[in-house]
Every structure is written in C-alpha cells, then in structure tokens.
Amino acid sequence: MKWNPFINAIAATAYIGAVVLFMHFIESLRHDTPDTLLDGMGVISLLVFSAAVMAFLFFYQPALRLIENKKAEAVSYFLKTLGIFGVITVAVLTLVSIQ
User: Fold this and answer.
1) Does an H or E element contain 3, and which?
2) Does the pLDDT at position 64 exceed 80?
3) What is residue 21's three-state secondary structure?
4) What backbone phi and psi angles, to 5 degrees, belong to 2?
5) What is the DSSP letter of 6?
6) d(CA 31, CA 60)
7) pLDDT in tens, 5-49
8) How far is the C-alpha of 97 from the C-alpha of 61, rounded, in Å?
9) If we measure between CA atoms, which residue out of 99, 97, 93 comes closest to residue 16?
10) Of residues 63, 40, 41, 52, the one with CA closest to residue 15
C-alpha cells in the first residue's frame, strides 16, 4: 500500500476519533469515582503515545524523502498532509458549531 498525504490525514483523524471514543467510554464507566494516581499516569501515557502516532503519520514519509535527498518533495508531502488535516479539522469544527 502506497502512503500519501490524504491517507495520513485520514489516519490521524481516525486515530483522534478512536481516542475520543475510548475516553468517552472510560468516562461513562467511571463518572462517579474519584481520580487516582493511575489516572494521571494513563493520561500522560496516552499523550506520549499520541505524540508518537502523530509524529509517524506526519513526519515518517517526509523524513524518508529527506534521507533520499528529495527536500522539495519532503516539504511538499508534509505541507499537503498538514493542509488536508487542517481542512478536515475545520470541517469537524464547523459541524460541531452548527449543532
């Protein structure tokens, strides 16, 4: 499967949606329980994991192109991924604001 900026942006959006669903599910199970030390550890672990996933989705392919000395292609790939993700983000925020 050949990766392209559109697939990376969609994958980032899908990952964010999965995290939101997971957090909503956990919240529905634990809505009346006090916070514990493990909650903080879980949140920070999720943050680190999410940063790694997003770094892979946004930077892996451009980094490969940089290693191959294709600088213009690397920058273009990254900006396309970022642009498509930005459009998706604006669309989601627009849908949220009209509800």
Assistant:
1) none
2) yes
3) helix
4) -90, 125
5) H
6) 38
7) 999 999 999 999 999 999 999 888 888 888 889 988 999 999 999
8) 33
9) 93
10) 52
Amino acid letter, 65: R
Q: How far is CA 20 from CA 6, 27, 59, 72, in A?
A: 21, 10, 23, 35
Question: Can you read off the two tokens belonging to residue 59?
Answer: 């930077």
Q: Which two tokens stand for residue 29?
A: 């199970």
Written as one letter, the residue type at 66 is L
Q: Are the C-beta atoms of 12 and 58 separated by less than 8 Å?
A: yes
For the record, the structure tokens of 17 come out as 């949606």
Q: What is the 3-state secondary structure (H, E, C) of 23-91?
A: HHHHHHHCCCCCCCHHHHHHHHHHHHHHHHHHHHHHHHHHHHHHHCCCHHHHHHHHHHHHHHHHHHHHH
- SS3 call for 99: coil
